[in-house]
Design a protein that fits this description.
Arc Repressor Mutant, subunit A, elongated, Rossmann fold, 483 residues
Length: 483
């Protein structure tokens, strides 16, 4: 068996969509699993819509996901001369012919067919021109396209996803492969490039199924060995419809900027349309995915892109990620939010790692961690009014309680979890309160919010000086609210 060679061939006309990223990932996983090559081809023949910005976005998206390619990027637009030569070779071999029918003439015939309630199909009138007439028209500079002569019979293949697929050739008209300006039509360009790149497996979305019989006919006409084909089902939104912008973020870059880890996105995309079979752990590293990826696990039915499932999976990866790797990701976002400079976080590195370890169990995304970290990084506490209304309902009693907490913690030494716990439990018993009745008002005083990590974790991360200062500030705030 030849070494597997697979490719991802995006058009640089927009962002890297999650559907395209999934296709790239499956090609990459297959190549890595079988010791093959993963290649990248930019299909930029549509010069009007292709942009350098989109090309960069595609490269950056693939690199963020960790999907490196093995050879130099192929730009389809650079291969127009070969595409034309392949078309001319098929004319010479009798598999294609020149068509001089103008767009105006074809449109008139199409309307005529519609008026008669029939389907339009090119009638091969230019295929009936003799060689001398064709030569005369070409010499006279008459514009022409090149059409492929579809043979009788049927065209089929065994798809790695859908099994045996066959199309009657009578349903395929003699399709144009080269425009009058010498530029290739999609099916010719793709086939010519895949042959030149020695692609052994074409794995792509099943919206390309109808292109495949045409491409197989071109392979045969060019005397090239057929690759295998695998057509992946579409990705749907949670409403069962094709994934689109109306479902929210569909660009890989959007999720990157919303705090999703690349390893979580890879894990999530891998399970959209593929399963390792049997019982398996959904949370997998990329090396684990490579070890078990196989074509027989590709699913025929459409998969559902569920953002909540992605965020859950991201939370699982946050939990297992090395804190040293997580710190710079969170640190950059903390600095961007204006909470603390990266250089300061670097000076407090061990403290920052302890904070991350405390917060990540409550987070689904990197952005969640930044939001949860705010009370621990801000110079002053911002009180959530809903939390205040619930925990500081009786102001005089709350003020007295917080003053007693301040005194108990001031006398506590050393500032460690066990002595702090003893001090607060003793205080609660002396006042005839459960610890929850003490911790609720404390939590708002220390963080400004009604939800936070465990109270002793909060006290340890804040430290003696900051914790006592915040209790003092809360008492002052209660005094202000009684005026």
């Amino acid at each position: 068996m030849p070494t597997p060679r697979l490719r991802f061939a995006p058009s640089p006309t927009g962002y890297l969509h999650v559907g395209g990223a999934r296709t790239a990932l499956f090609n990459w996983l297959y190549a890595r699993r079988h010791g093959g090559q993963f290649l990248l081809r930019v299909e930029d023949t549509d010069k009007a819509r292709s942009t350098d910005e989109s090309t960069r976005a595609i490269f950056e998206g693939l690199q963020w996901l960790g999907l490196g390619w093995d050879e130099e990027v192929v730009y389809q637009g650079s291969n127009v001369a070969r595409h034309g030569a392949d078309a001319e070779r098929m004319v010479a071999s009798g598999h294609a012919y020149r068509c001089f029918c103008s767009a105006f003439e074809l449109d008139a015939r199409r309307k005529q067919a519609e008026a008669a309630e029939g389907a339009f199909k090119y009638d091969r009138r230019c295929d009936r021109l003799d060689a001398a007439e064709v030569a005369r028209r070409v010499a006279a500079g008459e514009p022409s396209v090149i059409r492929f002569r579809v043979p009788e019979g049927s065209t089929g293949w065994t798809d790695l996803v859908h099994g045996d697929i066959s199309f009657p050739n009578k349903d395929i008209e003699d399709f144009v492969i080269l425009r009058s300006d010498g530029t290739p039509i999609y099916n010719l360009a793709v086939t010519s490039d895949d042959i030149a790149m020695r692609i052994t497996l074409v794995m792509r979305g099943d919206d390309h199924v109808s292109n495949t019989p045409k491409q197989i006919l071109l392979y045969r006409a060019l005397g090239a060995e057929l690759p295998q084909f695998a057509h992946l089902p579409m990705i749907h939104g949670t409403d069962g419809k094709k994934l689109s912008k109306r479902h929210g973020a569909t660009a890989v870059a959007d999720w990157q900027h919303e705090g999703i880890l690349p390893q979580a996105m890879v894990n999530f995309l891998a399970l959209l349309g593929w399963s390792p079979g049997g019982e398996f752990n959904e949370v997998m590293r990329i090396d684990e995915l490579v070890a078990v990826f196989a074509a027989d696990g590709l699913l025929r039915k459409a998969s559902v892109f569920d953002p909540k499932k992605l965020e859950w999976m991201n939370g699982q990866h946050l939990m297992t990620m090395a804190l040293g790797d997580l710190a710079p990701l969170v640190g950059r976002k903390i600095a961007a939010a204006g909470l603390m400079r990266e250089i300061e976080l670097g000076r407090r590195h061990e403290w920052f790692l302890r904070l991350l370890d405390l917060l990540r169990v409550r987070a689904r995304t990197v952005d969640d961690i930044v939001r949860l970290a705010r009370p621990f990084l801000a110079a002053t506490v911002t009180y959530d009014e809903a939390a205040v209304a619930k925990a500081w309902k009786e102001i005089p009693e709350t003020r007295a309680l917080l003053a007693a907490v301040h005194d108990a913690l001031t006398a506590c030494a050393p500032w460690e979890a066990e002595p702090l716990e003893v001090a607060l439990k003793t205080l609660a018993e002396a006042r005839g309160l459960g610890t929850g009745k003490v911790f609720g008002p404390m939590r708002v005083a220390l963080t400004g919010e009604s939800n936070s990590p465990g109270m002793f974790d909060v006290l340890m991360v804040l430290g003696r000086e900051t914790a006592l200062a915040r209790l003092t500030a809360a008492i002052s705030e209660l005094d202000r609210r009684t005026l």
